[in-house]
Structures are given as structure tokens and as C-alpha cells.
Amino acid sequence: MRHGNKVNNLGRKKAHREALLSNLASQLIMHKRITTTLAKAKALRGYVEPLITKTKKADDQTVIMHQHRVVFSYLQDKEAVKELFTVVGPKIADRPGGYTRIIKLGIRVGDNAEIGMIELVDFNDVYGKANAAAQGAEPAKKTRRSRATGTAKATAAATTTEEAATETEATTEETKSAE
């Protein structure tokens, strides 16, 4: 029975599982997106999100050093820790959680395993604010407009066309009087 056993063992012993998750987390931080099996991606999400949260605690220099050491004890990769605190941390500083996204990609041909892509949400080029900023224009705001404003626009357009018509009549009368 599995009473109270919430961790997915991934068919590995504890040391092997921790090494696997550490390596996957390092690669996710370095590459911002990796493809793996769906079970590993779900286990990785629970492993890497608390580490990303630790980058937000930047009250004091001693606290920052302590958080670096704690994260290094999980990742065992200096480059990944440096990338996490210098690139990833500032970009996710205003996000309250949910730093990763898992997208299902189908099944693997060889063993029929479900494949998924896990990525850092703020580093995606397709979705979100990064795409709107890359295009250079903000998306149009959708507003609710009542009929009153619609008729006001129609009357404003009608008055501008009437003004334009009177101006053209005035210019034609001036040209006739000049002849």
C-alpha cells in the first residue's frame, strides 16, 4: 500500500532519483526549456520551483549568500546557480509562483512513453508579454461601448463631413467671385 507516499520514485533509488532531478533542474535553468517524459517533468516541477523561489529572498548579503549555498546543495552546478540568481531570479521577481509550464507532446515511438516539454514561463517567446514587446505594439484594449457613444461618433463624423462640404462650397464661391 502507498499510504502517505506522495513522491514519484520514477523507478529509481533515492540517490539516483536526486541526481536525476538535480541534472534535469540544472539543464532547465541553463536552457530554459527541456523535453523529457511527462512523469519526470511533473517530478521536476516540484523540485525546481522551490529553488526558484529562493532567488527572491534578497534582504541582506548574508541571506543572499546563504540562499546561494542552499541552492548549490541541490543543484551541484556553479554555472546553473549563477544563471538562476543573475538571469532567472530578476525576471521572475514579480511572479507569485507557477514558474514552470508543462506541455504534452505526445508519445515516444520506441517505448510509448508520454513526452512533455517543461519550460520556464517568463522565458517563452510564443506566449505572454515577451511576444507583445517583441512586436513593438501593445495589444488593443477591448472596451465595452454603448450605443450612445456609437451615435456620438456617428454625429461627430457627420459634422466633420458637413464642415468639409461647407469648406469646399466656400472655396468654389471664392473662385467664382474671383473670375
Adjacency order of strands in the biggest sheet? 1-3-2
How many structural units, i.e. domains? 2
**Secondary structural class:** mainly alpha
Assembly of the depicted chains? single chain
- Which residues form runs of ≥5 with pLDDT under 50? none
Strand content: 5-15%
Task: Indicate the overall shape.
Answer: globular
**Gyration radius, in Å:** 29 Å
Give the CATH level 1 class of the largest domain: Alpha Beta
Q: Roughly how many Å apart are the termini? A: 106 Å
How are the SSEs ordered, and which strands pair?
Blueprint: H1 14-31, E1 33-37, H2 38-53, H3 61-75, H4 78-91, E2 100-107, E3 114-120, H5 129-135, H6 147-178
Helix pairs in contact: 1-2, 1-4, 3-4
Fold and architecture overview:
The protein is mostly helical and 179 residues long. The protein folds into 2 domains: 14-128, Ribosomal protein L17 (50s Ribosomal Protein L17, Chain: A, Alpha-Beta Complex), CATH 3.90.1030.10; 145-179. The chain contains 6 helices and 3 strands; from the N terminus they run H-E-H-H-H-E-E-H-H. The protein has a 3-stranded antiparallel beta sheet. A hairpin with a 6-residue loop joins strand 2 and strand 3 (114-120). Helix 1 (14-31) crosses helix 4. The N and C termini lie far apart (106 Å). The mean pLDDT is 83.
